[in-house]
Amino acid sequence: MMTATNPVLQSTPNPLQTMLHHAPGLTRAGLLLGLLLIPLTLAQYVDPRTFQGVSVWVKPTKFAGSLFLYLLTLAWFAQMLPPGFMQRRGIRVFHAIVLTCIALEMLWIAGASFLGTASHYNRDTIALEILYGLMGVAAITLTSATLVHGRAIWRHRSDPLGRVVGASLILTFALTLPTAGYLAAQSGHHVGTSVSDAGGLFLLGWSREVGDLRVAHFFATHAMQFVPAAMAILLWMAGARIPKGAGLALCLGFTALTVGTFVQAIQGQPFLPWLV
Questions:
Q1: CA 97, CA 218: separation in Å to the nearest integer?
Q2: Chain centroid to CA 237: how far?
Q3: What is the pLDDT of residue 236?
Q4: How far is Cα 271 from Cα 265, in angstroms, rounded to an integer?
Q5: Is 7 among the domain residues?
Q6: Residue 30 within a domain
Q7: Cα(201)–Cα(213) distance, rounded to whole angstroms?
Q8: 270 and 276 in contact (C-beta within 8 Å)?
Q9: What is the pTM of this model?
Q10: So what's the pLDDT on residue 190?
Q11: In which residue ranges of the chain is pLDDT below 50?
Q12: Is the C or the N end of the chain the one with fewer CB within 10 Å?
């Protein structure tokens, strides 16, 4: 005896299908970075070399994971863009440049790990000084996709979630630019006497002894995930009773958190001092 299937459930695309439909290039590039996480993670157990107290492969693994989330988040939110936005010639060229910058960043970071040297703050020669500057330009360029997409979504959508998604993408660029810029201009990510990443917070690696500028950079870069997720939970809990201005409050609150962790770091204080 055959059982009837629900046509609505049957026709509902899964998240991967949705992303491939709206942003195939970004989705495939994101999945490729996801696959790259496998050999990079395995390399940490096979290669015994360390840099600043941790495996030489920790940094490229973190960057691959972050960029994996970055591209798939952009691909998921692409369904909120105006019709035809992703098909515009200028946008296709822009995305090609963004993906090229991501590839160059990963190539340099993974290459430096393979050589057992620093990919960041490495200014030992004029050539490395120039390369470090070019990687900074590439980082700004790839991050600018959040500004381009965020502005388009903000202007296209008028619903609470759409507005927050647009605002969070713009916020990601606005917060990342100063936090990453300040971080890149220093001689290292620690503010204090520590020069080792060993014993940092689980998974993230942030120092539990001194200030760590990577904390604010992390929150800034992931505003595009944290703020919409908080808004989605709020909508799920409150529904139509959601307070007016809730989206603005979430954006302001997250900005305060990011700025607070930045100030904390430059004062030489660890993010979670009670874990020290």
A1: 23
A2: 27
A3: 86
A4: 7
A5: no
A6: yes
A7: 14
A8: yes
A9: 0.88
A10: 83
A11: 1-11
A12: N
